[in-house]
């Protein structure tokens, strides 16, 4: 798997490079500012980019904007965003195109190596991996009239776990329910969100994106 890293903190950038190389990944570039990141994407055509939200020159949202541009340069590029804080606006920017292959983790998760690597692989494989703290804040920010408000409490728990990237078996284990119960909840979620097999989309990814994008409404 070919990876480009965009992180302005030199120590974290080097640490990520060493970690990923040690796990057998091909780190084709590790850079510290947005222009160099976009140049690396154009040159190397990576499978996934690991991008810091706040980068030079203003250290606000340069990383997010560079990630959005990188997905225009290379459609289908998987992006795992890292941030020291919960940036709720990322959902409206990075997920606006309605595609998968997106992850958002707080930087503290990088220290939990297996959690970080698992999220990286899920995103590269076409899924999502959203930090539980981000999920909690997005739920809190939903507005009245949002279709997600029709979900039951248990269905919200299931959808939140899906957003984290958990499979049905892992969701069942976390919630202490059977696999059949998880399947039933997911069918209900699809129905309430108006996601049908005829849509021609991955309904699991579509439901997660609808959930993450809920604060736009």
List the defining traits of the structure above.
2 domains, 49% helix, 10 helices, Rossmann fold, Arc Repressor Mutant, subunit A, alpha/beta, 217 residues, six-stranded parallel beta sheet, single chain, elongated
Structural write-up:
This protein is of the alpha/beta class. It folds into 2 domains: 2-135, Response regulator (Rossmann fold); 142-216, Winged helix-like DNA-binding domain superfamily/Winged helix DNA-binding domain (Arc Repressor Mutant, subunit A). It contains 10 helices and 6 strands, in the order βαβαβαβαβαβααααα. A 6-stranded parallel β-sheet has the order 2-1-3-4-5-6, sandwiched between helices. Helix 5 (113-124) links the parallel strand 5 (102-106) and strand 6 (128-130). Helix 2 (34-44) packs parallel to helix 3, helix 7 packs across helix 9 and helix 8 (168-175) packs across helix 9 (179-192). It is elongated. It starts with a strand and ends in a 5-residue tail after the last helix. The relative contact order is 0.11.
What's the short version?
With about 220 residues, the protein is of the alpha/beta class. The chain has helices spanning about 10-20, 35-45, 60-75, 90-95, 115-125, 130-140, 155-165, 170-175, 180-190, 205-210; strands at about 1-5, 25-30, 50, 80-85, 100-105, 130. A six-stranded parallel sheet has the order 2-1-3-4-5-6, sandwiched between helices.
């Amino acid at each position: 798997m070919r990876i480009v890293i965009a992180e302005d903190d030199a120590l974290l950038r080097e640490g990520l490079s060493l970690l990923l190389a040690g796990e057998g990944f091909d780190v084709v570039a590790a850079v510290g500012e947005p222009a160099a990141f976009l140049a690396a994407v154009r040159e190397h055509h990576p499978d996934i980019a690991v991008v810091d939200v706040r980068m030079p020159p203003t250290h606000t949202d340069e990383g997010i904007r560079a990630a959005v541009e990188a997905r225009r340069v290379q459609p289908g590029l998987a992006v795992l965003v890292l941030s020291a804080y919960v940036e709720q606006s990322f959902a409206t920017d990075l997920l606006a195109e309605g595609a998968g292959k997106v992850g958002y983790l707080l930087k503290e998760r990088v220290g939990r190596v297996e959690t970080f690597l698992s999220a990286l692989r899920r995103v590269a494989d076409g899924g999502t991996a959203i930090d539980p703290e981000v999920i909690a804040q997005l739920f809190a920010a939903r507005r009245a009239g949002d279709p997600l408000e029709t979900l039951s409490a248990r269905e919200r728990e299931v959808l939140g776990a899906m957003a984290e990237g958990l499979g049905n078996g892992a969701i069942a284990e976390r919630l202490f329910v059977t696999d059949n119960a998880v399947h039933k909840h997911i069918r209900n979620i699809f129905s309430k969100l108006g996601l049908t097999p005829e849509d021609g989309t991955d309904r699991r990814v579509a439901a997660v994106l609808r959930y993450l994008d809920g604060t736009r409404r």
